[in-house]
Sequence to fold (668 residues):
Amino acid sequence: MSDGSNAPESCLLTAIKTEEEDEKEHGGHPQAEVAEMCCQHINTINDYNSGEDSEIGGLSSGEEYELDRELDEDFRDSDSDDDNNAETQHSPGPAADSEEDDPEPEPEREAPEGMPERPCAGRGRGRGRGRASHRVNQPVVQTYSYDDSDMPNQLPSFRPVRQPGVHLDAQVTRSAMTKAIDFFKLFFTDALLLQICTYTNAYAWEQILRKPYYGGKDGTWKETSPDELLRLMALVMFCGLVPVRSFYRYWSTKTLYHGMWARSIMSRDRFKALMAMLHVVDPGAEDERDKLRKVTGLLETFKVTCKALYQPFQHVAVDERMVKSKHRSGIQQYIKNKPTKWGIKLWVLADSLNGYTYDFDVYTGRKLNDAPSENGLGYDVVMRLTRSLAHQGYHVYFDNFYTSPKLVNDLFQLQMPSCGTTAENRRGFPESVKKGKEWVKGKDRGAMRWVRDNCCLALQWKDNRPVTLLSSIHSANEFLHVQRREKFEHKWRCTRVKQPKAIHDYNFYMNGVDRSDQLIGQSTALRKCMRWWKTLFFHMMDIAVVNSFILFQIHRAAYPDAAALKRPQKYSVTEFREELVRQLAGLEEYGDPPVYEPVQNPGEFVTDHIPCVSDTKRNCRVCYDTSKQALKVVTKCDAPQCQVYLHITHDKNCFEAWHTKNYEHRKN
Fold:
């Protein structure tokens, strides 16, 4: 056998030498053909040593054919035991089993011309199929389903640093917290309001020389106060409750708009002046390198207050929020598939139980000096927002923008089990659960497959489409049944399908931020304005209103017998907002609408018209109507129907002319 085995090797060497000579003569073969020829000769050697015909090259030479005949004759002459030993030595594995199962010899074919007959036939020079038979298949990790046993993680116990719920300051008396304004002023405290007033007045004095029309009659600025700032907030919230096309119509005296309560809260000119001069940070200490310099101080104070007043329950959710705005700045974002496509993006951490906004960050775009880590932006956002909840046993939920195997594993190391939908192309995602669109073909609705990698469970479930999820909270064996509608024989019917509990819990607990968005969206205080930071300030007002409502509801549930906390059974956030506006503006719950000037009765005057002397001078109404002369007087008619300045002298009695029935310039 040693002599015979050198024949194929010599053939290979000869072939390689021939290739080299041809390469020198013709300029060389392509590398793919040279590699394939070498592979073909190597397979010839392997086939010969195993006692089988070559599956690639067939009859390579007459010398190889003679060696095959000699080996075949030796096998036929040996006894059965020797024959089995020879088969075991030269044809191991499946070849030996195939000969035992099928003892009949294979059909012979005629040998090529000039050569003796060969007992076994070759397969010709089929290159593709021959190479495929020698490939080594990669090992595939097995996936499992509902009936396969899973070893879930040992979850950390829930041990928050404080009792979940409302945490009021020790100086606040619980029995005194009975109104909506009491909870709203927990976020906008007297100290914070005084600080905003200080910054607003400082900015106004800087700008009033360039904008004197926002000042008083003498052109100076009338300083604002915390009470007036609260009325300004009340007016902005009122505009959210009663929307009109333009804010000027809130003070309109036209028939359809007459009687609105805006004029009882604040005059139109003062509202415009305060909105123009409003400032929430020190105007002299703004950092030009900070994109959020107009609200940085207020943002930090507000976020600290939100976390100090409330401790979340066990399940929290991380998601993004878009604050509607089409301003032009470096922080504006556009998301194509969102209902609100243009605006300011916020990363929000909310309680899944009630939607309380516990923490948030404003996304200012990619920064050169603060680029995302190698783990990605979603990883950094979740780690930053949940930093204060680590090692307490909180369960964190997020969507596929954030989810990755590394995030789930790292959160579990911080004793924060997590769950979230994910994409199959995430780094570190198990290969055996990929290609979900191919896997669902032919599967029934409700089918599931899973695989566990350390503490991370990768699960895929078929609904209308494949749903992929990573979790360190759940077990793959937990499931429930849900109702689905399917079309069967041209008719729709309800069917019960299996749903993993991980999918069910994700749908239930992931809506924390969405629930907060729904509450904020009901009569939002958001106004369209030119300055982006004012949009953010109004959004903080909305967050304060919704968080105040949640705290108020928890406080009411803690004291069900308190008469001052009694409210309607279906007390909504809109009713809470209405109550808050009345208390901020000092209005009663019921009353007559305010009027600027009652409609005059064209009939007889029934009210006494008494002339009086005023401290200011105005044009005489009659003189201006008749001759367009601007003659200023201090005497006026103080009756509610009139309120006009008129001459009352011996030489000119415009008072009498105005009150005659035939005065043609009076508007009836």
Notes: Residues 600-668 form one domain. Residues 532-558 form the longest helix (27 residues). The chain has a mean pLDDT of 78.
